[in-house]
Design a protein that fits this description.
About 45% of the residues lie in helices and about 20% in strands. The chain contains 7 helices and 6 strands.
């Protein structure tokens, strides 16, 4: 059975919930999956594929997500891996600066290592905002746009991902 790591860097839990949904779907598709915080991973040995995700805040991935790419660069370069970001909230019809959603340096680094895809999922504002910045964000965004995660989109991507992992790991083993 193919063994997959879903690693994530989450600040307030929204990205962790997305990572768990991805892991659950991959498992339903017949893969063996570990879903763990990126900062807790010491080695990728034993994994056939990796999915890495991070929350995006002010054009930046979380430190543990960025660090994961650097710390495991040589292993990632040899494995099929995919990347996701989460974060946009607010009115989905309002124009967004792509740099806020996809930090260019991180995406360039992941691409250089051979990432097969990068997708951006909507995020969720904290349920209990802390501090003046989070409270101002929550106050300034209508309630219906506080949680932009599309679980059907996440599941569909994960099902496609499972098929790609099965094909990629089969090709790698000849």
């Amino acid at each position: 059975m193919k063994r997959v790591l879903v690693a994530f860097a989450s600040k307030r839990g929204s990205t962790a919930e997305i990572a768990q949904a991805i892991a659950d779907t991959l498992q339903e598709q017949g893969l063996s999956v570990d879903c763990r915080e990126a900062g807790d991973i010491r080695s990728l040995q034993g994994y056939d594929a990796v999915v890495l995700g991070s929350a995006v805040y002010i054009k930046r991935w979380r430190h543990d997500g960025k660090d994961f790419l650097g710390r495991h660069a040589s292993e990632l370069a040899r494995l099929p891996f995919w990347v996701f970001s989460s974060g946009p909230v607010g009115d989905p019809d309002a124009p967004s600066d792509p740099a806020w959603l996809e930090p260019p340096r991180i995406i360039e680094r992941a691409s250089a290592l051979g990432a097969r895809d990068h997708v951006v999922f909507g995020g969720r504002l904290p349920l209990h905002p802390r501090g003046p910045i989070e409270r101002a964000m929550a106050k300034g965004i209508p309630e219906q746009f506080h949680d932009r995660r599309d679980w059907n989109e996440i599941r569909a991507w994960s099902i496609d991902l499972a098929a790609e992992i099965q094909a990629a790991t089969a090709a790698a083993r000849g």
